[in-house]
Amino acid sequence: MKKPLIIRAEAEADLVEACRWYEQQVPGLSAQLLLCVDAVMASIERNPQPYPVVYKNVIRRALTRRFPYAVFFVEGERTIAVIGVIHAKRSPRIWKDRV
Q1: Whose CA is closest to 12, among 73, 91, 98, 85?
Q2: Does domain 5-96 have CATH number 3.30.2310.20?
């Protein structure tokens, strides 16, 4: 059974921040980032199991293809919650505190 994907406010804020930064670098680049993140989230929603567990046996990580971002998520009984969309070089403390 396909579980709905819920994007927490913190993850949405992460994505808005990343889009702002990319848009300042090259106009239109933020739209490409959004397409990459959307593709990863669609894959997570279809089948979250292949993605590795990276913290406390509950948080999984999916990497985007073109941009150095990771989507962190928790699979519950009925939903999948995206807790962060974080640049790969940022401190893990950012998303670890969101469990």
Answers
A1: 85
A2: yes
